[in-house]
Every structure is written in C-alpha cells, then in structure tokens.
Design goal:
Blueprint: E1 3-8, E2 23-28, E3 40-45, H1 52-58, H2 65-71, E4 87-92
Antiparallel strand pairs: 1-2, 3-4
Length: 99
C-alpha cells in the first residue's frame, strides 16, 4: 500500500507575531481515487490529453459512454475532469451495475 504524506501548514500574520502549528495528515491513495463501482475488474490509467471518447476507442469500443460514466460516478457528464495518472473502471464483473 502506498501512502502519501500531505502536509498542511497555516502561518499567522507576521505583523501580529502569531503562528499556527503545522499539522501532518497521511491518507491512502485509494481514498482519493475515483468513485467507481465495486464490480470493476478492468482498469485504464488516464493519459495526458485523454478524453472519454479516447478511453472508449483505445479499448476497442467494448463499452459505451453511458457505461463509462455509470461505472465511474466521479466523472462529470462532459468528461472535463479527467486527471492523468488516475485509473478509471472500463469493465465490470457480471452481474454488474445496471447502466
């Protein structure tokens, strides 16, 4: 399991001479991943410049836009929020969600 260390630092106003302690929070990469169906068995890693249509095309049109959005509920209907490096579900085990 890969852990990413996220440091949050809040600084006070210098003229007031105040400061706030630095807090450190660890979180799991999976916790910040896309919300996707629990039935997912095939994944695709988003590349720079990918669109939803690219993802469908690169996977031999084995699924529809409707299915892609159903399996990955964090992807907005315009597919304008794809982030390179993140994985999306591109196939589900039978029976999967009804899309």
């Amino acid at each position: 399991m890969v852990n990413i260390k996220n440091t949050v630092c809040l600084l006070g106003v210098a003229s007031l001479g105040t400061s706030v302690a630095v807090g450190t929070t660890k979180f799991d990469v999976d916790a910040v991943a896309w919300k996707m169906t629990e039935f997912c068995i095939n994944y695709y890693t988003i590349g720079f410049g990918d669109t939803c249509w690219d993802i469908i095309s690169r996977n031999q049109n084995k699924f529809t836009m409707r299915q892609l959005l159903c399996w990955n509920t964090d992807i907005n209907p315009w597919c304008s929020n794809l982030i390179p490096g993140r994985q999306v579900c591109i196939g589900v085990d039978v029976p999967g969600p009804v899309c």
